[in-house]
Protein backbone atom coordinates (compact mmCIF):
# COMPACT_ATOMS: atom_id res chain seq x y z
CA UNK A 1 0.00 0.00 0.00
CA UNK A 2 1.04 3.56 -0.65
CA UNK A 3 0.84 6.43 1.79
CA UNK A 4 -0.50 9.82 0.60
CA UNK A 5 3.09 10.86 -0.22
CA UNK A 6 3.48 7.81 -2.50
CA UNK A 7 5.92 5.90 -0.27
CA UNK A 8 5.28 2.25 0.57
CA UNK A 9 4.15 1.68 4.16
CA UNK A 10 4.51 -1.29 6.49
CA UNK A 11 1.36 -3.40 6.88
CA UNK A 12 0.46 -6.09 9.40
CA UNK A 13 -1.55 -8.85 7.70
CA UNK A 14 -3.89 -11.08 9.72
CA UNK A 15 -4.65 -14.71 8.91
CA UNK A 16 -7.49 -15.67 9.08
CA UNK A 17 -8.39 -12.26 7.61
CA UNK A 18 -11.04 -11.11 10.11
CA UNK A 19 -11.13 -8.33 12.69
CA UNK A 20 -11.12 -8.37 15.59
CA UNK A 21 -8.68 -11.26 15.51
CA UNK A 22 -9.46 -13.90 18.14
CA UNK A 23 -6.84 -16.00 19.87
CA UNK A 24 -8.77 -19.26 19.44
CA UNK A 25 -8.49 -18.88 15.63
CA UNK A 26 -4.73 -19.58 15.73
CA UNK A 27 -3.96 -16.14 14.30
CA UNK A 28 -0.83 -15.61 12.22
CA UNK A 29 0.55 -12.09 11.83
CA UNK A 30 2.76 -11.24 8.85
CA UNK A 31 4.75 -8.02 8.56
CA UNK A 32 4.73 -6.77 4.99
CA UNK A 33 6.88 -3.96 3.63
CA UNK A 34 10.05 -3.33 1.72
CA UNK A 35 13.43 -3.91 3.27
CA UNK A 36 15.00 -7.02 4.71
CA UNK A 37 12.34 -9.46 6.03
CA UNK A 38 14.69 -10.71 8.76
CA UNK A 39 15.09 -7.15 10.06
CA UNK A 40 11.50 -7.02 11.38
CA UNK A 41 11.05 -5.53 14.85
CA UNK A 42 7.86 -6.53 16.70
CA UNK A 43 5.95 -4.52 19.30
CA UNK A 44 3.31 -5.72 21.74
CA UNK A 45 1.30 -3.31 23.88
CA UNK A 46 3.34 -0.34 22.65
CA UNK A 47 6.66 -1.81 23.79
CA UNK A 48 9.42 -3.46 21.85
CA UNK A 49 8.79 -7.17 22.15
CA UNK A 50 11.38 -9.92 22.52
CA UNK A 51 10.52 -11.42 19.13
CA UNK A 52 12.80 -10.02 16.44
CA UNK A 53 13.72 -11.18 12.98
CA UNK A 54 10.91 -13.33 11.57
CA UNK A 55 8.40 -11.66 9.28
CA UNK A 56 5.51 -13.80 10.60
CA UNK A 57 4.48 -15.77 13.70
CA UNK A 58 1.46 -17.44 15.30
CA UNK A 59 -0.01 -15.41 18.16
CA UNK A 60 -0.14 -17.13 21.56
CA UNK A 61 -1.19 -14.16 23.76
CA UNK A 62 -3.85 -11.48 23.57
CA UNK A 63 -2.63 -7.95 22.97
CA UNK A 64 -2.06 -5.19 20.45
CA UNK A 65 0.72 -5.91 17.97
CA UNK A 66 2.70 -3.76 15.52
CA UNK A 67 5.77 -4.37 13.40
CA UNK A 68 8.53 -2.18 12.02
CA UNK A 69 10.54 -2.67 8.85
CA UNK A 70 13.55 -0.47 8.11
CA UNK A 71 12.67 2.07 5.44
CA UNK A 72 8.87 1.74 5.60
CA UNK A 73 8.19 2.40 9.29
CA UNK A 74 5.82 0.99 11.85
CA UNK A 75 2.56 -0.71 10.92
CA UNK A 76 -0.94 0.18 12.08
CA UNK A 77 -1.89 -1.86 15.18
CA UNK A 78 -3.68 -5.22 15.18
CA UNK A 79 -5.49 -6.28 18.35
CA UNK A 80 -5.95 -9.95 19.22
CA UNK A 81 -8.70 -10.69 21.75
CA UNK A 82 -9.96 -13.79 23.55
CA UNK A 83 -13.66 -12.97 23.81
CA UNK A 84 -16.30 -15.69 24.01
CA UNK A 85 -18.55 -13.89 21.50
CA UNK A 86 -17.28 -11.68 18.65
CA UNK A 87 -18.78 -9.85 15.70
CA UNK A 88 -16.15 -9.83 12.95
CA UNK A 89 -15.67 -7.95 9.67
CA UNK A 90 -13.14 -8.67 6.92
CA UNK A 91 -9.65 -7.39 7.80
CA UNK A 92 -9.31 -5.18 4.72
CA UNK A 93 -10.01 -1.59 3.76
CA UNK A 94 -13.74 -1.04 3.39
CA UNK A 95 -15.20 1.76 1.30
CA UNK A 96 -18.65 3.31 1.37
CA UNK A 97 -20.97 1.22 -0.78
CA UNK A 98 -19.04 -2.03 -0.32
CA UNK A 99 -21.01 -5.15 0.53
CA UNK A 100 -19.74 -6.42 3.87
CA UNK A 101 -20.02 -9.91 5.34
CA UNK A 102 -20.31 -9.99 9.14
CA UNK A 103 -19.50 -13.06 11.24
CA UNK A 104 -20.98 -13.61 14.69
CA UNK A 105 -18.93 -16.30 16.41
CA UNK A 106 -18.72 -17.94 19.80
Automatic annotation (TrEMBL):
GO terms for cellular component: external side of plasma membrane. Residues 4-67 form the Ig-like domain. GO terms for biological process: cell surface receptor signaling pathway; immune response. InterPro entries: Ig-like_dom (IPR007110), Ig-like_dom_sf (IPR036179), Ig-like_fold (IPR013783), Ig_Fc_receptor (IPR050488). Gene3D superfamilies: Immunoglobulins. It comes from the Eukaryota. Signal peptide: none annotated. This is FCGR3 protein. It comes from Grantiella picta.
Amino acid sequence: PLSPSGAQTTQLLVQPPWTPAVLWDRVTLTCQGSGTPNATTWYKGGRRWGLEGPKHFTVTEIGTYRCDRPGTGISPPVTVVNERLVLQVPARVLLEGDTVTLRCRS
